[in-house]
What does this fold into?
Amino acid sequence: MNNKKIIVRFAPSPTGPFHLGSARTALYNYLFAKKENGVILLRIEDTDKERSEKKFEDEIYDSLKWLGIDYSKKILKSSERTKIYKEKLQELIKNNFAYISKESEGQNKEVVRFKNPGGKIKFTDLIRGNIEEDISNLKDFIIAKNLEEPLYHLAVVVDDIESGVTHIIRGEDHISNTARQILIARALGKKEDFQYAHLPLILAKDKSKLSKRKHGKIVSLKKYKDLGYSPEAILNFLAFIGWNPGGEKEIFSTKELIKTFDIKKVQKKGGIFNIEKLNWLNREYILRQPKIEQLENFRYQLTLANAKFKNHQKLNNQKFVENFLEIILNKIHRWAEVEELVEAREFDYLFEKPILDVNKILWKKQDKNNAREKLKKVLEIITSPNLESQDNLKWDEVMKYAEKEGKGEVLWPLRYALSGREKSPDPFTLIKILGAGESKKRIEKAIKLLT
RNA sequence: GGCCCUAUCGUCUAAUGGUUAGGACAUCGCCUUCUCAAGGCGGUAAUCCGGGUUCAACUCCCGGUAGGGUCACCA
It folds into this structure.
């Protein structure tokens, strides 16, 4: 190894929404650079004037910022460097590596082609070892539409040389571009080839490359932001598609990722994007957040939701909100689910009396009298003056009673009376959040209905 | 089709010649306060196939098979 400062670059093209695969490429470049105490450059590869758009360029900046991937300030844009490309093009032509070719078909009558010397090109890939590419049946490839309009292969190589890039870390789909780029670099006088590392692709469920055309919006990073995934979880997850530090730890902060990253341990096989694992991981991140942050996220979600109770005075009660949050926390994998659940009216019963269906108060084959008696007894226990404010003792009493009489016959009517739902948190949690007074009213109402 | 890359549970992976092939997600079962979650405990589940090399192969070599990538005046 030499002691030369390591310089890597992330070079996305602003021709579409920021892709998950791009995010992962950026991440690996970032981890590698940080780990090796090097520099990471951002370059906007906008040589294609037709397809490049400002909004996509901005999305690149926003996405990297959101993910927390920072790059050295220098941002190169291909579109602003046509002068140097022209010089290099002329140099290549002068030195007989390229020529202006008359075309019989295609958009332009003349293009610049690189003379293909044929034979085999060998290079070493940090991940895959030696790769040998036979280029004899490749034609003289086009490197520019004309002197003013370079194409990708020329632009990348010129820029990488200019900015002193040492390592090129990119997707596996670029392997077959490498031979051509090596040829151009050597023609431009580069003595030592770049170090290459071709990352395995991120695959969809069908094992093909994750692509917008084939797999839709799920390839766009913004989609995951909108769904309420945290950038830390996304980074952690993306890092682990195709790389693993060994060991059984799964949750890594970006700092820990940097510390343990080893490009030699990068997988060769493409990895399927498994959203279920992402969900699990994101939940772990939510659960690890400090209470204050959880509360903040939770309250923010409530403001987004289009719910009747949005301005309910109960939301001014901190204790109530904390209890609500607790119920929420064992249901969600991402914060945006709060909004979704609230909009589905999943929690209306916390704010207004439920509308009870008499038949649903009954547990299985239980009859009305039976259920009524059970509820009366429960009411008696929880309003007992001896046990005032000693919730645990009350619960114990209720449970004792329920165990004696049959848990279902006691707990089901109780829970249903409180929530009006067949599925809900357990009755004790409900009483805790609704408060003794409100709970009592709801139980009494159910008793009345059963008469 | 040419060229290239790849191959351990369904998925992400660990094990760099000697392990009862480990973990996580998912799944299944049981437990926990009736239901729904969450949680706890446990189970099912993998070295693509065939040849070598070796005392010994998931691991090294060769062949096959399968999958993927790429073959633009896109990047």
